[in-house]
Amino acid sequence: MSRQPSSPLRIRDFRLLWLGEAVSAIGDQFALIALPWLALVLTGNALALGGVLAVMAIPRALLMVVGGVWVDRMSPRSVMLASNAVRLVAVAVLGVAALEGAIELWMLYAFALVFGVADAFFFPAQTSIVPQLVEPDQLQKANGIVQGTAQAAVLIGPAAAGGIIAAFGSAGAAPNQAGVGIALLLDAGTFLASIVTLWLIRGRAGARAAGGGSLLGEIGEGVRFVLRAPALRVVVLLSLAANLLLVGPFEVGMPVIAYTRLPEGAAAYGIVLSAFGGGSLIGLSIAALLPTPAPRLLGTVVMVSVGIAGSGVAALAFAGTTLVAAVMTAIAGMALGYGNLLGLTWMQARIPSRLMGRVMSLMMLGSMGLVPVSQLVAGAAITVSLDGMLIAAGAGMAVLALGSLLSRTIRDLGLTPIVSRGRSESPAEEPASEWAAADLGQPTVDLEDNDAVYAALDQSA
Fold it and tell me: According to the per-residue pLDDT averaged within each range, which of 70-84, 143-157, 207-221 is highest?
């Protein structure tokens, strides 16, 4: 007979993480609105916008695995603290420059480079810290809370940022930069809040997680784990393809739509991104509150969500009003929010804690590896046809989703064995329970026995 897991929010360290990330996530939306808008204001060129975003994405992708090694060496908390400190300084400097009306295009490229490097270390730390703070049977709820809060920030932050940029855009020494400067300085304040809450965390997430091999040797250990896991390999390839088709068209196409077609301008851009956040929040809430799909259906459900998201992206080509654009992005966000939470929890449950940073960084490298290409191609394609670019991207996602279901590995994704964590791996005071895996009808495997782990993963092919 199964029991319901207690709320992760009853755990002090998880509450601190959640609070700090909630505040910081709102600030992140201010920067995500401000940077593309500033690039368009300075150049009026979608290709330049794509270039700025690519300069941020390239170091993030190239250094992601290095970031994962340092997460396993130092602990997720330490890496998150350092990354937030770097990003605080970068955002504050750019914000002050914007208020002074001194921003030039090269400064955006420099900011994007610094931010991308810091992100490469932050992202694997962020996805690795939650399993260290909660019990395995609380993991999906904990992920739902963290991801749901981030999407709630996407619901609140962009509209607020767009409003601030529009309201203060006529103030200051440089009319087109003043509102952006205020938005960036607010983001800097939220990084400070996150640093404070992370500093107060004192559980296992603050302890040194791994020690001292060579950088290449530790990366190699993570690579070998992924290569021995057929399901992980396939998920990496699918994530890479989906992000190639989605990220550039959305991140470059959406501000161009707002800038050229929607009369509300920056405010419309904020509203549409908020709609995406609202849809994602609904999808995450459904995934967190409802039972996980049966193991034999999990892969199919996740890929159907990818196909629905693609339909929403394609439909943006026909969005002539802010309302229509908001509805389409909300549909895409809901599908992605639901599928992403299922996928994240699936991965975390199948990676040993000692490899979590490295393997998660490899997974993110797979999903983000072609993002710079996606952004540059989208920027170039828009110069030919904005509508054609959106329709092609959305149709490609739908074809990818349907085609992936021909793979037995994807159809049987939920049957991949779950890693069983003993007391030495559990972050809580009591031993980690295996009831959740048993209730789902999924096998478990002892992570201390590497041969058993690899054998089980090989059998999942």
Answer: 70-84
pLDDT value at position 438?
34
Cα angle value 187/191/192 (rounded, 5°)? 115
The string of DSSP letters for 30-92 reads: HHHHHHHHHHHHHH--HHHHHHHHHHHHHHHHHTHHHHHHHHHHH-HHHHHHHHHHHHHHHHH
Residue 3 placed within a domain? no
Chain center to CA of 70: 19
pLDDT at residue 430, as a whole number = 34
Q: What is the residue whose two structure tokens read 């074809």?
A: 399
- Identify the CATH number of the domain in which residue 290 sits: 1.20.1250.20
- Residue 451: what residue type? D
Please tell me the distance from the alpha carbon of residue 419 to that of residue 37, in angstroms, as a whole number: 44
Q: Does the residue 40 lie in any domain? A: yes
Q: Assess if residue 444 is contained within a domain.
A: yes
pLDDT at 20: 93
For residues 12 and 423, which has the higher predicted lDDT (pLDDT)?
Answer: 12
pLDDT of residue 418: 60
pLDDT of residue 5: 61
C-alpha to C-alpha distance for 427 and 406, rounded to whole angstroms: 39
Neighbours of 451 (CB within 10 A): 7
The token duo for 197 is 């809450």
CA atoms within 13 A on the CB side of 117: 9
**Distance between CA atoms of residues 335 and 316, nearest Å:** 15
Query: Do the domain assignments include residue 1?
Result: no
422 CB-near residues (< 8 Å, 6+ apart): 431, 432, 446, 447, 448
Q: How many domains does the chain have?
A: 1
Q: Which positions ≥6 away from 214 have C-beta within 8 Å?
A: none
Which structure tokens are listed for 204?
Answer: 């296992």
DSSP code of residue 134: S
- Rounded CA gap, 29 and 342, in Å? 24
Query: Domain limits at 371?
Result: 8-459
d(CA 153, CA 329): 15
> Do residues 242 and 427 touch, judged by C-beta distance below 8 A?
no
Taking all residues of the chain, what is their mean pLDDT, rounded to a whole number?
Answer: 80
Q: Which residue has the tokens 């049977």?
A: 137
Category of 375 on φ-ψ map: left (φ > 0), alpha (ψ -120 to 50) or beta? alpha
Average pLDDT of the residues in 370-394: 88
* Per-position b or e across 86-117, b if 16+ CB within 10 A of its CB: bbbebbbbbbebbbeeebeeebbbebbbbbbb
pLDDT tens track for 261-316:
888 777 788 888 888 888 888 998 888 888 888 888 888 899 999 999 999 999 99
Quote the pTM value: 0.68
Cα 216–chain centre separation: 26
